Amino acid sequence: MVRIKGLVRTFQVVRTQLQQGIPEDRVAEFRRSVRDAIDTVEAICAKQGASPSELPPQSRQAYDFLKNLDLDNLPLIHNTALPSQGKSRPIQIKNVINTCDGFIHRLSEQAFELEKSAETRRKMAHQIQGVVDKIEAICKNAGTSPSMLETPSRNAYCFMKFLVTNDNLERHVQTLCKAIRLASSLRPAQEKRKMIVQFAPMRKIYTSEPYRNAMLITLNEGWIDADDQVLSAIFRSVFQGKSQTDRRVISDYVASEGFCAVLYDLDAMAGVIECDAKGRVFDLDDVFEKVNREYFGGKMEKPLCHWNRTLTLAKFGHYQPSRDRVMISVTLDDENVPAFVVEFVMYHELLHKKHGAAWSNGKRYVHTPAFREEEKKFKYFHEAEVSLKQLAKKQRAT
């Protein structure tokens, strides 16, 4: 079987760019990169006397997607639609990623000390806050905001900002310590290398990298609310290979409210820019006005609505009460998604704003019976549910 490293990653990058739209001045570059990827795959296959149809399933799907992409009809972002040419360009700040990586390493190395000592956590938070403040000051002096950082730096900034917001650092440390203990208890007896476990902002849900003297296991920050059962499934998959049971536990959690909510919160840390409500296909301000008029009698106070840059598997919207913000995944900003589906997700999130949360036996519930009853009043409720399940299935497959 032919294996081509980086093909699936290329597909993911291309898909993300298509979801967000291609700037007019980068169309030629985008087309060239896709064609180069296709040519590379076909050349490697020919050299090995094989065809792209013999690639592993994920790689074959990635190749087919790129091969069948209509490069003459791309979703474009017109330069005239941007707020201002001077502020629309990504801003570059040196060492943001390296600094973030340093904190990730220190959090792992000092996890148990941080767990025991509130003062140690306070000092760590102060140091992270200092970096966040410097980044924000540089952005302010440049007449822009962290939302305009280049994507890798933006993700690193969001992660650091997330850690010093609310009680997220304590939450991070508690789960990190739990994960380290579980990894140690589940490691094979013959595994003598140092075990390093860390949480980080990343596209993959987890990675394991074996080195000569250490095994590095990196978990997506989305796992920071995961329980022992879920974390154990990850470590068993790393040490023993994926069983059907553990694969389902992992998959179910990745699609859960908890995992996705963390990703939404992370992405929101950079703030939003004026045009974030206006997508390539749908304008969320218009969607809100329609839903508000038809289902809330026009009396719902407007939250901040914007497209979230997180491509999700099953959760396509999120309401953030602390900032009165509705975030909808850019996955839905697609001409193949019916308008009623976007309207339903908006309606669902506005119901969260209306109903809030209820507590019972120490647990917090956001989908109360009253919530579910009102949710069914959406005109195309069943059709929207079916469409979202189909989209979620498609997302998982790719």
**DSSP strand count:** 10
Strand content: 5-15%
Low-confidence stretches: 80-87
Major sheet summary line: 3 strands, mixed
Structural class: mainly alpha
Distance between the termini: 20 Å
- Helix-strand sequence: HEHHEHHHHHHEEEHHHHEEEHEEHH
Helix content: 40-55%
Mean of residue pLDDT values = 86
When the domains are counted, the total is 3
Task: Provide a concise account of the structure shown.
The chain has 398 residues and is mostly helical. It is built from 16 helices and ten strands. It folds into three domains: 7-79; 82-270, no CATH class; 272-397, Zincin-like (2-Layer Sandwich), CATH 3.30.2010.
Which helices and strands appear, and what pairs or packs with what?
Blueprint: H1 7-20, E1 22-23, H2 27-47, H3 57-67, E2 76-77, H4 85-88, H5 96-109, H6 111-116, H7 118-141, H8 151-163, H9 168-186, E3 194-200, E4 206-210, E5 214-220, H10 228-240, H11 244-254, H12 257-268, H13 284-295, E6 304-308, E7 317-320, E8 325-329, H14 339-355, E9 358-360, E10 363-365, H15 369-375, H16 381-397
Parallel strand pairs: 1-2, 3-5, 6-8
Antiparallel strand pairs: 4-5, 7-8, 9-10
Structural description of this entry:
The chain is built from 16 helices and 10 strands. It is mainly alpha-helical and 398 residues long. The protein folds into 3 domains: 73 residues; 189 residues, no CATH class; 126 residues, Zincin-like (2-Layer Sandwich), CATH 3.30.2010.10. The strands form 4 sheets. It has a 3-stranded mixed β-sheet. The chain is globular. It starts with 6 loop residues before the first helix and ends with a helix.
